[in-house]
Structure formats: C-alpha cells, structure tokens
Amino acid sequence: MKEYLITELQAREMFEEHSTYVYGIALMITKSPTLADDITQDTFLRTYAKYHLYDESKPIRPWLYRITVNMARNTLRKKTWMRLLSVVPDSKRELSAESIVMQNAMHLQLWSLVIRLSQKQREVVTLHYYAELALPERASILGIPLGTCKSRLHAALEKLRLFNELESELWELREGLK
C-alpha cells in the first residue's frame, strides 16, 4: 500500500472541520466532557499517525468516526466507573436568547433520556441523529451488519419513547401532588 503523509495544513483543516462532531460523539458515548476531550485529542493523533492507511477514494468522515467510536469504547472499558452527565455542545449558529434557552432545555431533556440507553444503543443513536450518518456508514463504523444497525436504532427509539412517556406521567403525578 502506498504511504501517505498528512501535511500540517491538512491536519489543521481536518481538525477544524471534524473536531466538534468527534467531540460530540465521544461525549454522547462516554457521558464525560473530560473523557470526550481526551478521546477527541487521541482520535486526531491516531488519525494523523494512521493516515497512510486511509483510502482517499472514500469519504473521511466514516473512517474518522469509526476511530472515535473505537477510542471511546476502549476508554470506557478502562474507565467503567465514570458516570458523569453533561450537556451536548450547542451548534455554532447564533440564535436569540429565548431560542438558546429552549434549545438547551430540549437538549437536556433528550440527553437525559439518551444516557439511559445501553452503550450500543447510544452509539447508533449518536451516529444517526448527531453525526447524521447514513445507515451503511453507521453499520461500517460500528462494525455490525446493516440489519443489526437498523434493529438497534429501532429498539433505542422504542426505549426513548417509553422513557419519555414515563417521564411525562411522573411529571403529571408531581403536578397533581402540589
């Protein structure tokens, strides 16, 4: 295989273009901003070191996200005792103060439901909704068949609906007790 070296400019551009998503994926998988920072840094270091293995005829995002998911999985294996909660980073768009408050509230509500999923379900939900990857890319990144990827997403969505219904019922009960 031909040996490719990544230039400093290419590395900087890759980081600027993909670091927010890499961080977001790592955060959603690990639930820890500190671990997500470490994973983001390690992902790009690994990407630069292994760039010669990258097939330039294919999009870089799936390859980069696969490295991210693998780094997050390895980190979780080492740090299974870490159970931290944080907010998913906001997008870079400028919004009104009211929109930002509403968006943060929705992120918190959704995030509080997503973190209850199993790691496998969190991974597929993160890659589908946060990274916005197509089914074949998600399956490839996770190293699973397409059918398994579909069924995990379906099961995760069913669980999220159930969690949401239960939270709504609890909210109504709390309001009724006041």
Account of the protein in words:
Helix 1 (8-30) packs across helix 3. The chain has 2 domains: 1-86, RNA polymerase sigma factor, region 2, helix turn helix motif (Rna Polymerase Sigma Factor, Chain: A, Orthogonal Bundle), CATH 1.10.1740; 98-178, Winged helix-like DNA-binding domain superfamily/Winged helix DNA-binding domain (Arc Repressor Mutant, subunit A). The radius of gyration is 18 Å and the shape is globular. With 178 residues, the protein is an all-alpha fold. 72% of the residues lie in helices and 0% in strands. It has 7 helices and no strands. The longest helix has 32 residues, at 146-177.
Summarize the structure.
The chain is 72% helix and 0% strand. It is an all-alpha fold and 178 residues long.
Topology:
Layout: H1 8-30, H2 33-49, H3 60-78, H4 97-114, H5 119-130, H6 135-142, H7 146-177
Helix pairs in contact: 1-2, 1-3, 1-5, 2-3, 3-6, 5-6, 5-7, 6-7
